[in-house]
Amino acid sequence: MHRTIKTTGLNCPNCAGKIEQAINQLAWIQTASVNIATQEITLQTSETPTQDHLKEIQQIVLSYEPDVTVYIEPQSQDSLESLEPQQKNKLIQIISASLLLAIGVFLLYKAPGFSRLTFILLLMAYLIAGLDVITAALKNITRGVWFDEHFLMAVATLGAFAIGEYVEAVAVMVFYKVGEYFQDAAVDQSRASITALMDIQPTIARVERSSGTIEISPENVQIGEILQVRPGEKIPLDGEVIEGESQVDTSALTGESRLTRLTPGDTALSGCINQTGLLRIRVTELYQDSTVRKIIELVEHAANRKAPTERLMTKFSKYYTPIVVFVALFLAVIPPLFLQQDWSEWLRRACTFLVISCPCALVISIPLTFYGGIGAASKQGVLVKGGNYLEALSQVRTVVFDKTGTLTAGQFQVRHLIPVEGISEEQLLELAAIAEQHSNHPIAESIRQAYHQEVASVSLDQIEEVAGKGLRVQYQGHSLLVGNATLLEEAGVSFNPCNDSGTKVYVAYQGQSLGVIVIDDALKPDSITAIDQLRTLGIDQCIMLTGDNEQTAQSTAKTLELDRYYAQLLPEDKVLLMEQISKDLPIDHKVAFVGDGINDAPVLARADLGVAMGALGSDAAIEAADIVLMTDEPSKLAQAIQISQKSKRIAYQNILFALGVKLLFLILGALGLTSMWLAVFADVGVALIAVFNARRMIR
């Protein structure tokens, strides 16, 4: 059973990780994932969740994050509570504490020495700013969770109070809350930017019913109903155009700015914008199965599949925080005990050390970087199913392409006919068209189109499609073969091999060869550009696998300047070759296979990364692949790799920057060369800089 629970105000990745861990320990939960980018909790359960089950989830979330709102009932996006009241309350809290702190400092300036009034003002400021931090730390301790940012800040500031550093303790807590406020705001802005990239979901559908044309939610439209879509409106659901002609903007789905013409009989996809004429569309898919809904769900849920770097940072923070706490304890105790040093000085250094040590910059910015990369890719018409696949793209060094429909247009045309003596071209083409009359293969369609006549609905017996070879049928009591040379060889039919480039379709009837049909499939306009771009990005090998004959494969490979090619392959041969190619590469080199997503599903599944080409609206392609290119352009793969490399580069920038600054300040703090005020910068300041750096992926 799958269930998604919405939340608002969930901005802390560290807390989200603890919530996820606690929910996964529940008996009725199979898997749970908490996603701060979409503020959703995704549950896979062993039974249908009851209200008591959902309230149990709600209590777990609130125990870690009291300010978060959890919606245990399904909510529309419009009905979700705004974050503004929460942010407003935090701002009031910060301003109140800052004013009390300022008055306390002013009184100290006018009359040095702590009076009762000054102490009360500073204590009030501390409680206003830090009571929720201390409460959260105590709650976590009762659950056995000691080492988190609440614990670090509580111990550090209470320690400062213990040695009489009242102003410093209050200032550190206030600055921490200021940093947390701006950090939450930055995360919210990043989330809003990512959400805007996916703002392609139509909100209304204009439906023709017996009472007239009405406007309703797309969720309430049934298959078979008729939609009216006016110029300037988004197509709300997938369907077939039954009336009207128009140009539509598909850029929201494909990243392409050029318009596509729709006429009666064409498929209209949800999320596209109607530009010029009124369209009447018969609905063929329910809202939950529509193209636009699938795209949004793919991008939203992609953050649940964490990149290796994200998982590494989660593990790192799990061990890092306890280590620095014990180092701080060492600083506070060992020098005064064994070196007769001043207790208050070393306690101050230990408190400074604790403030610096919080790993917020890493646990917040790294997930945002990869989620931003996924959003940026979707804007370019590339669907990446998870951060793990986005990061793996940056490690791809070998790209293996299918030929037909991937590097070539997949629009076959009969180039010429070579009948044997005594057989006319018309007879050769007619028999081939008869055999292929029920096939939907592109080669079969090209033969029927070249025939220029309606193929009579001739009764065929024992129709057998031989995978990777062609068709064997019984026509008028005799065997009719239409396929490649292997098909005729296996049937014992002698023929004259054709050495022309292109796809050769041999025809044999009554055990005699009738000739060959040569079919050509042109390269896509940007295939050469795509190969050049991939090499520029560091791809070592570009390889082609095809079921076509040797001459055709060689011609295509030579034109594209591919490193290798393999011809006359059956589907199972491609899988074996993919395994061999992967085996011959270093362990840190990934192999991507690019295919049409339907015929090549086994190879897509076997590759390190399966990339489906031209898969707009194709269920099979979206299901089989790890990455879906929403247009027929192989150059989109180069764009995806560029985005992947940039995401990884920014993630590593943040890691090195955050660890470098923190290490510097930890050393300075241990030596007593920095104050707790500067320690706050090393914590929240670095986190803010890292978050803003991560937001570069979204722009």
Automatic annotation (TrEMBL):
<dbReference type="GO" id="GO:0005524">
    <property type="term" value="F:ATP binding"/>
</dbReference>
<feature type="transmembrane region" description="Helical">
    <location>
        <begin position="676"/>
        <end position="694"/>
    </location>
</feature>
<dbReference type="GO" id="GO:0008551">
    <property type="term" value="F:P-type cadmium transporter activity"/>
</dbReference>
<keyword id="KW-1278">Translocase</keyword>
<protein>
    <recommendedName>
        <fullName>Cd(2+)-exporting ATPase</fullName>
        <ecNumber>7.2.2.21</ecNumber>
    </recommendedName>
</protein>
<keyword id="KW-0812">Transmembrane</keyword>
<keyword id="KW-0479">Metal-binding</keyword>
<feature type="transmembrane region" description="Helical">
    <location>
        <begin position="91"/>
        <end position="109"/>
    </location>
</feature>
<dbReference type="Pfam" id="PF00403">
    <property type="entry name" value="HMA"/>
</dbReference>
<dbReference type="Pfam" id="PF00122">
    <property type="entry name" value="E1-E2_ATPase"/>
</dbReference>
<dbReference type="InterPro" id="IPR008250">
    <property type="entry name" value="ATPase_P-typ_transduc_dom_A_sf"/>
</dbReference>
<dbReference type="InterPro" id="IPR027256">
    <property type="entry name" value="P-typ_ATPase_IB"/>
</dbReference>
<feature type="transmembrane region" description="Helical">
    <location>
        <begin position="116"/>
        <end position="138"/>
    </location>
</feature>
<dbReference type="InterPro" id="IPR059000">
    <property type="entry name" value="ATPase_P-type_domA"/>
</dbReference>
<feature type="domain" description="HMA">
    <location>
        <begin position="1"/>
        <end position="69"/>
    </location>
</feature>
<keyword id="KW-0813">Transport</keyword>
<dbReference type="InterPro" id="IPR023214">
    <property type="entry name" value="HAD_sf"/>
</dbReference>
<keyword id="KW-0406">Ion transport</keyword>
<dbReference type="InterPro" id="IPR044492">
    <property type="entry name" value="P_typ_ATPase_HD_dom"/>
</dbReference>
<dbReference type="InterPro" id="IPR001757">
    <property type="entry name" value="P_typ_ATPase"/>
</dbReference>
<dbReference type="InterPro" id="IPR051014">
    <property type="entry name" value="Cation_Transport_ATPase_IB"/>
</dbReference>
<dbReference type="InterPro" id="IPR023299">
    <property type="entry name" value="ATPase_P-typ_cyto_dom_N"/>
</dbReference>
<feature type="transmembrane region" description="Helical">
    <location>
        <begin position="350"/>
        <end position="371"/>
    </location>
</feature>
<keyword id="KW-0472">Membrane</keyword>
<feature type="transmembrane region" description="Helical">
    <location>
        <begin position="650"/>
        <end position="670"/>
    </location>
</feature>
<dbReference type="GO" id="GO:0005886">
    <property type="term" value="C:plasma membrane"/>
</dbReference>
<feature type="transmembrane region" description="Helical">
    <location>
        <begin position="150"/>
        <end position="176"/>
    </location>
</feature>
<feature type="transmembrane region" description="Helical">
    <location>
        <begin position="319"/>
        <end position="338"/>
    </location>
</feature>
<dbReference type="InterPro" id="IPR018303">
    <property type="entry name" value="ATPase_P-typ_P_site"/>
</dbReference>
<keyword id="KW-0547">Nucleotide-binding</keyword>
<keyword id="KW-0067">ATP-binding</keyword>
<dbReference type="InterPro" id="IPR036412">
    <property type="entry name" value="HAD-like_sf"/>
</dbReference>
<dbReference type="InterPro" id="IPR023298">
    <property type="entry name" value="ATPase_P-typ_TM_dom_sf"/>
</dbReference>
<keyword id="KW-1133">Transmembrane helix</keyword>
<dbReference type="InterPro" id="IPR036163">
    <property type="entry name" value="HMA_dom_sf"/>
</dbReference>
<keyword id="KW-0104">Cadmium</keyword>
<dbReference type="GO" id="GO:0016887">
    <property type="term" value="F:ATP hydrolysis activity"/>
</dbReference>
<dbReference type="GO" id="GO:0046872">
    <property type="term" value="F:metal ion binding"/>
</dbReference>
<dbReference type="InterPro" id="IPR006121">
    <property type="entry name" value="HMA_dom"/>
</dbReference>
<keyword id="KW-1003">Cell membrane</keyword>
<dbReference type="Pfam" id="PF00702">
    <property type="entry name" value="Hydrolase"/>
</dbReference>
<comment type="similarity">
    <text>Belongs to the cation transport ATPase (P-type) (TC 3.A.3) family. Type IB subfamily.</text>
</comment>
